[in-house]
Design brief:
The protein is mostly helical and 343 residues long. It is built from 15 helices and four strands. It has one domain: ABC transporter involved in vitamin B12 uptake, BtuC. The longest helix has 31 residues. The chain is globular, with a radius of gyration of 23 Å.
């Protein structure tokens, strides 16, 4: 039972990332009808927003520390972060320690700008083109962004730790009546799951309860009619592209302590997340979220040793097997609209 619970927690962790990226993908497809293969790159850019913020907060200058001497007895020069000068040593150290959550303040405007520029500068020219053209051009854009990140930050992963308060593990088993240390789980992975639920809930609430969101949902259902009412639906859809970019970027920001950012992390998640979208149903926001968590849990359980002993490599292909079964029996996906992908 303890192994089952642990794998379920791992599944929620993986599913959180899949659901957030798939949610953004579905927002773009549902509003603009564009298959955006550059969406994984937005996840990557968000992760490197955290790297950038961490480096900015750690910028320092050298001062002479009279209390410390080198082997010759001369006072040593030490690096003092600028935030220590501005806010004091204790507060400065706290700000540096919380660099990843603080990166959200940088990621939101950056991702909004990147999303709008991407949509206005390139993707708008492919609205009426075949999906194959959209896939090719956005995949090419993803490669360009990936190489830019590689050139600026290097090819090696960049460790970006979580705040010290969340670097340990929670004794989850004790809360369920197990012996101490039977089931322990990293705090930050639980934080990431909670963060994902908040972001997903906020997106659905925005679409459901705001006038802007209701107009967007109407435009998703019948774009021409909304346009005839005198509403600039194209402008709203552009902002939705920016919102989708923000969701992907925030997913990347908070994922950095779990997986050190590297230039190909976007591609690693993109294919899996696109499969999640297809399984959930192209254009279905609830389907994307449900499929993200479902496939994350299935992949987690498939990685158990006794299952891999029976079917070697099943953890690597389980998501694709499920996708094949879904497409064969229900081409529109689990919660997809009737007629989508069924022509």
């Amino acid at each position: 039972m303890d192994a089952v619970i642990l794998q379920f927690l791992n599944g929620l962790d993986k599913g959180s990332a899949y659901a957030l990226i798939a949610l953004g993908l579905t927002l773009i497809f549902g509003t603009l009808g564009v298959v955006n293969f550059a969406h994984g790159a937005l996840f990557m850019i968000g992760a490197f927003c955290a790297v950038t913020m961490s480096r900015l907060l750690s910028l320092s200058h050298q001062v002479v520390d009279e209390t410390r001497t080198d082997f010759l007895g001369n006072p040593m020069k030490v690096d003092v972060p600028y935030v220590n000068d501005w806010f004091g040593e204790a507060t400065g150290a706290l700000i540096i320690d919380w660099a990843v959550p603080i990166s959200i303040l940088l990621a939101i405007p950056v991702m909004l700008l990147v999303g709008i520029v991407m949509e206005r500068g390139l993707i708008k020219h492919f609205y009426k083109r075949p999906h194959a053209d959209q896939i090719l051009v956005t995949f090419g854009l993803a490669i360009v962004l990936q190489e830019i990140i590689k050139q600026v930050y290097g090819a090696n992963p960049i460790p970006t730790p979580a705040p010290e308060a969340f670097r340990g593990s929670l004794d989850f088993g004790v809360m369920l009546g197990f012996d101490p240390y039977t089931i322990t789980y990293p705090y930050w992975r639980l934080v990431y799951f909670a963060f994902s639920v908040i972001i997903i809930g906020a997106v659905f609430a925005f679409l459901q309860f705001t006038t802007f969101g209701m107009v967007v949902r109407a435009g998703m259902a019948d774009r021409e009619t909304v346009g005839l009412l005198g509403i600039d639906i194209d402008r709203r859809f552009t902002l939705m592209f920016g919102l989708a970019a923000i969701v992907a970027g925030l997913a990347g920001v908070m994922y950095t302590p779990i997986n050190s950012p590297n230039y190909h992390m976007g591609m690693d998640f993109l294919v899996l997340s696109f499969v999640v979208v297809v399984v959930g149903g192209m254009g279905s926001l609830p389907g994307a979220v449900a499929a993200g968590f479902l496939l994350g849990i299935l992949q987690s359980f498939a990685s158990m040793n006794w299952i891999k002993d029976i079917i070697p490599g099943i953890d690597q292909i389980i998501i694709y097997l499920v996708a094949i079964l879904i497409l064969l029996t229900r081409p529109r996906g689990l919660l997809g609209r009737k007629g989508v992908m069924e022509e």
